[in-house]
DNA sequence: TGAGAGATTAAACGT
DNA sequence: ACGTTTCCATCTCTCA
């Protein structure tokens, strides 16, 4: 099994022969462990099924009755499936979803569904979850979603609910009224309140009101307004005040990590900065959003660090990292909910306006000056209310959403940006909001039949890279794109300039700032770097020039990894599943510069990004519970132990200006020798460092 | 060939 | 300490 065998297999049969892409014993062991685990899990499910389906049955009956639904046995699988479908459709009708043509899918185990069904029959109900929405008894009048889609979304909720496993069943107390004393109107209001889709602008106050109450404080609005003021003035006044507070904060970090760098790939001065990155301050971690983070970014200001994160429920959190305040509970975080679905993109156009985009189809712009989230674009379905809107008719229904939005760098500086948008059904389109009041769709093409995860425009302004669930990265010349909506879906997709096959779903593909390299993250467990792919135009399949093995199996509860470039430098960062938890920094040749670890970095950082500054190096990471870490350069701890490979610093103390004690784990005796050699020469010459060292062998 | 079920993953939050 | 919840991700396998 050669390491170089990149998963370019295009057939599924080939995948079957070597499904794990393994190349070492340890992984084989892991697979064996995983399989053993799987057996245990399966056994548990069977036991649950046995206890759930019917108490009167004994083991032999269960074994014989392969297909049981609501206590009824079915002899064939098809009968069973048909019965289940009919059962769920009946329930939908009972709930008022009368449209017979409604299609839906069940996604969970039958056993759980049947237990829930039995629960319903016996007049008992499930334990109430914290934010269970109420049953909608009527369709909204004023909504960007037309009636059919509203029904389908509600339906989605119910189907999931029916099929939910691990349910706890409790006896219903009292009469079958509403839960916890709420009136039906109140429950309904709660259900609709979290949808922000009427096409209007949102003030800060409104966006805060849309938060779940438990995230808001009395001073939330005031705090948000104060933050906006700070951001507004950050470009002018921040530099002086911050440099003092910064030096205070970083005067005594608790650890430094030596790095393995190579001057041939990175400018020497820059490598030092990466080595100086530290992440041991508790203050540099904060809960910024309530739910899983889908996107992180930073405010572009050089003088003030504001981290921004968007989560799965449409929350956007702005975190002022260096806030000096002891009495507020939010720790410098202001939370808004400008969207109702996962945030797909957060991008600062300049220092006082940020684009927020979401799966809900809308794109907003946070106007810091005015303090509002303006809606600048949205997709609508066939609801004639929005006939006049630019996005009318784009939304194709239940399985349609806008997956990724990128602002067009060619429109930088104009008041209204242009947007590249990708969708869950494989479309890519470009919205030009500059020209008229309404704007226009420059092109709209279908480039895949699966979801497009990212789009990236090459600095040449013409080449667009798309990456999606079909496992192929395609490069297109957007000058050949046109508005293709009117034509039939069967029409052939535009021909790509070239393509790169990953085999499995590609989470992201981004061009480097210079345009030299294309960086790809895929479920085939690779970070691929392809050089000069944009120069091809003959439709060939290109191969990556560098392929880094990287565990991208994030599973269901973690946001997928998307390795991301620094906005101006040729380095990129990525989250990692490795333990201890870390964020990784690579250079443009795919060589790992740092795996940043630290006390405060204790979870998987699914999404990471760099601050745009090239002088103040900052890396921001967001995890799957809404926490954000900011990794920064500490000037007191510049240690450039180049050539000290295989060393890992485990402890360091700074007795201010006296001396430092540094303990390294060394992985071999050869390392110890080299360490001493090196330490006697370069280490003590470092101007910022007076050092005594103590070495322990690693075992 | 398509649809569906099951496995996988990590971390917060209850008891 | 342990069990529960997450469920607009994705892959693999099975069934008809």
From TrEMBL:
Say if the entry is tagged with keyword Repeat. Answer: yes
> Where would I find the WD repeats?
445-479
Compositional bias of kind Low complexity:
1-13, 108-121, 237-255
Q: Which GO terms describe its biological process?
A: regulation of DNA damage checkpoint
Keywords annotated in UniProt: Repeat, WD repeat
Q: Which GO terms describe its molecular function?
A: DNA binding
Q: Which domain of life is it from?
A: Eukaryota
Has the keyword Lipid biosynthesis been applied to this entry?
no
Chain spans, region Disordered: 1-29, 108-145, 231-257
| PANTHER family per UniProt | WD REPEAT-CONTAINING PROTEIN 76 (PTHR14773:SF0)
What name does UniProt use for this protein? WD repeat-containing protein
